[in-house]
Structures are given as structure tokens and as C-alpha cells.
Write a structure and sequence with these properties.
single chain; alpha/beta; five-stranded mixed beta sheet; 6 helices; 47% helix
Length: 155
């Protein structure tokens, strides 16, 4: 809209109009640069580094499951594994209700029942917990980097 509003000025007072347009471009560039400088990634560097290690520490035919949606795109992009993530991509076989049940369950039997949908393939399943706490006896610690962790399904 600013360009449209400035067009009469450019037509009648070319020098003033071009200076105005230049000032608008400079202001937009400054604001964009400042926002880019202040923006931080959704996940921490240690989580990102651990995700990048997944291809070298897991089997080629394994699945990697995200405990949280914030990790989902990173796992899909960098894990080089089939990504099981809440409500996204090809390998999610649970409803939202089942995901909520999985996150809140402390029951081994309940977890086994939920995981059966993935069990027929008998492929290893890893859970990327990142910096989140996840206490479930069906998942054992597999790899850690500072506060980020990967767990393996063992039931």
C-alpha cells in the first residue's frame, strides 16, 4: 500500500518520491534484520545435534518417534528414519486421543497395547524425548547428549 500511496509523489516530485521509497525499503530491511537477529530456533542446539546423530546410532529400518510436535519437523528432516509424529506424516497410526493416552500412561500394558500397531514389523522403535521428561517402563535410555535423550522401546 505504501508504494501505491507514494506513486503520485513519484510522478510529480520524482526526487522526493524516490527518497521516500528508499526510506521505506530501508525501514523494512532494518525491521526484518532485527527480527532475524532476535529469533531463536524452536529446539536447542544439543537436541539438534542428537537428532543429527540418529542415522549413525540406529538401524536403517528403525522408526523414530517424537514425544512432542516441536521435534517433528527436525526428526523428519534429519533422522533419515521413518518418523512417527503426532498427527503428521505417513507413519502416524494413532488418533489424538491415543497420543494423549500414550503421553500420560504409566502402565506397561497400556503402552504395549498402543505400540502393537507398530509391532508387526518388528522394527526397532526409538523415541526422541529431547529435553522433555518421559517416564515409561517400556522405554529405556538409549543415547544422551547433555539434557537431550533418545529412548528405545523395549517391551
Amino acid at each position: 500500500f505504501a508504494g501505491f500511496a507514494a506513486s503520485p509523489i513519484v510522478n510529480y516530485k520524482k526526487k522526493l518520491g524516490l527518497m521516500l521509497i528508499g526510506l521505506l525499503i530501508l525501514a523494512a530491511a532494518t525491521a526484518t534484520f532485527q527480527i532475524a537477529q532476535d529469533t531463536r530456533p524452536i529446539i536447542g542446539q544439543e537436541s539438534f545435534d542428537l537428532i543429527k546423530k540418529i542415522p549413525s546410532i540406529t538401524e536403517n529400518d528403525s522408526y523414530v518417534m517424537a514425544i512432542s510436535k516441536e521435534y517433528s519437523p527436525w526428526l523428519l528432516a534429519y533422522s533419515e528414519r521413518k518418523a512417527i509424529v503426532p498427527g503428521m506424516f505417513d507413519y502416524d497410526r494413532w488418533t489424538e486421543e491415543q497420543w494423549n493416552q500414550f503421553w500420560s500412561s504409566n502402565s506397561t500394558e497400556e503402552t504395549k497395547d498402543l505400540m502393537q500397531v507398530y509391532s508387526p514389523e518388528q522394527q526397532p522403535i526409538y523415541l526422541f524425548a529431547g529435553t522433555k521428561n518421559f517416564n515409561n517402563s517400556c522405554f529405556a535410555s538409549f543415547s544422551e547428549l547433555n539434557n537431550s535423550k533418545i529412548m528405545k522401546y523395549v517391551c
